[in-house]
Amino acid sequence: AQSVTQPDIHITVSEGASLELRCNYSYGATPYLFWYVQSPGQGLQLLLKYFSGDTLVQGIKGFEAEFKRSQSSFNLRKPSVHWSDAAEYFCAVAMYSSASKIIFGSGTRLSIRP
Amino acid sequence: DTAVSQTPKYLVTQMGNDKSIKCEQNLGHDTMYWYKQDSKKFLKIMFSYNNKELIINETVPNRFSPKSPDKAHLNLHINSLELGDSAVYFCASSQGPTSGTYNEQFFGPGTRLTVL
Questions:
Q1: Is B99 in contact with A31 (CB distance < 8 Å)?
Q2: pLDDT of residue B19
Q3: Among all residues of chain A, which has the CA nearest to that of B89?
Q4: Most trustworthy range by pLDDT among B11-20, B25-34, B65-74, B95-104
Q5: Contact of B28 with B16, CB cutoff 8 Å
Q6: Backbone angles phi, psi at B3, to 5 degrees
Q7: Average pLDDT over residues B44-66
Q8: Exposed e or buried b for every residue in A1-18, given b needs 16+ CB within 10 A?
Q9: Would you call A52 an interface residue with chain B, using a CB distance cutoff of 8 Å?
Q10: Cis peptide bond prior to A40, omega within 30° of 0
Q11: Maximum distance among all alpha carbons in chain A?
């Protein structure tokens, strides 16, 4: 069965520092891959997605993610974080045959140090 | 001009009660979803409706019954509430076919259900 692993439960970075959130997936083929952000008390917002093609995808709010097939990873990056980036980040996958059924990782909480 | 709205935002109730959560979307989408987010932030799909037809039904107790009166609404009714039902329930909607292509899901703000 497909699964998504986010090994970091909580990460704290200083404002202006770079960020990388890790995500690994388990699936027989290349699934659709996503990163969502959930701000406190809010619903989820799609940051970016990967289906095929260029393995480096750009998203909203200055985020990017890189798909590495050999490592089954889809890590999220941002070169310089802002205090407003503090939120919960979810990596997710969906199968081609059932693209609307999204499987979410357990989330990584990002805190920003002033 | 909220895209996906849910009511109520908070719901506190006693064990054994029956309650409903409502979801409405004004995006013109034809597919709607219910997700459950537990206390550890784990988010899992429960149901999905496409054009008022149930297309995803995960292993959810039959105390949970979704109802879609039209494409813009998907309500969630829960019978005989249990302590373990306490969670945040998210509604979402998307447009288009459900296999072979992905159409972005837009999420509502969530309903925090607390069962005492």
A1: no
A2: 97
A3: A43
A4: B11-20
A5: no
A6: -75, -55
A7: 87
A8: eeebebeeeeeebeeeee
A9: no
A10: no
A11: 44
- A41 CB contacts (<8 Å, ≥6 apart)? B109, B110
**Residue given tokens 């597919």 in the structure block:** B31
Confidence of residue B96 (pLDDT cuts 50, 70, 90): low
> In whole angstroms, what is the distance from residue B36 CA to residue B49 CA?
16
Pick from B99, B104, B108: which is nearest to A43 by CB? B108
Cα B81 from Cα B77, distance rounded (Å): 10
Could you tell me if A46 lies within 8 Å of chain B, comparing CB atoms? Answer: yes
Cα B107 versus chain centre, distance: 10
**And the tokens for B56?**
């995803």
Q: Return the closest-CA partner of residue B85 out of B35, B23, B36.
A: B36
